[in-house]
Write a structure and sequence with these properties.
8-stranded parallel beta sheet, TIM Barrel, alpha/beta, 255 residues
Length: 255
């Protein structure tokens, strides 16, 4: 497969990061990421039929909202945002972020930088009741062993990077239900067989997986490759891949 095949599947990129100069960054375990601007992102995605996507706040961006609001304003209404919020955020702050296109709160259980796991249930219910947002979970190596009884009670939830690890994968399959989303992202950072994971999740629920590039792949073992896109087609075929590349995310985010 080559560049011409990239032009056969419209893509909604459900997971990428924007890192611009002039906005606050926090050292996370001594790490500060390199710049990755909107221009860098659009250039990298120039060979794709990009219809929209989701800007996700990283651990290194803490609770800063300024970069996210500016990026969403520049990219437009076909893009949504996933932020990190402290429990002290007011209802007005949440309503204002919703007006700018933010649609979820991320809990980074792997690297921190977000609210803690003890805040997951009250935050999930609060934001869903206020504005219909969901929570997104970046799991640590064994997170699902602690959360497998909690996740079914959450009103709406998304799990990043195929669950991240082998230890999370079997519990993850058991949690798949109507309304759960799992991102087919971060293939260069996961500790699982990607092809088998895609096949098994899709066989349980073809409405669950959502493609994303995870650009610029901060701290991953390898960066996103176009081959990651082709892997999904290789496993699922062109027809079923359409749901993963676009339809499932549009339905989940309501963009």
């Amino acid at each position: 497969m080559g560049m011409s095949e990239l032009q056969e599947q419209p893509v909604f990129d459900s997971h990428f990061h924007i890192i611009e100069d002039g906005y606050p960054l926090e050292s996370n375990n001594g790490y500060i990421p390199d710049k990755f601007t909107i221009e860098n992102y659009c250039s990298r995605m120039g060979s794709y039929i990009l219809t929209g996507g989701v800007i996700v706040s990283g651990s290194f961006q803490g609770f800063d909202q300024t970069y996210l609001i500016d990026a969403l304003d520049k990219l437009g209404s076909s893009f949504a945002g996933v932020t990190q919020l402290p429990t002290t955020a007011s209802d007005k702050e949440i309503y204002d972020l919703n007006q700018h296109g933010v649609r979820a709160v991320r809990f980074n259980l792997n690297r921190g930088g977000s609210a803690g796991p003890e805040d997951l249930v009250p935050m999930a219910n609060r934001i869903y009741d206020l504005v219909g947002w969901h929570v997104e979970l970046y799991l640590g190596p064994n997170s699902l062993h602690d959360l497998k009884d909690v996740i079914p009670s959450l009103p709406k939830v998304c799990i990043d990077h195929l669950g991240m690890s082998k230890s999370n994968f079997e519990p993850l399959l058991g949690l798949i239900r109507k309304g759960l989303a799992i991102k087919a992202t971060g293939f260069g950072r996961v500790d699982i067989n990607v092809e088998n994971a895609i096949r098994e999740i899709h066989s349980v629920s073809p409405d669950t997986l959502m493609f994303g590039t995870d650009l610029p792949s901060t701290r991953a073992h390898r960066k996103y490759s176009d081959q990651d896109f082709f892997t999904i087609i290789d496993v699922l075929g062109q027809k079923e891949s359409r749901k993963v590349f676009k339809e499932n995310a549009l339905n989940f985010y309501g963009v």
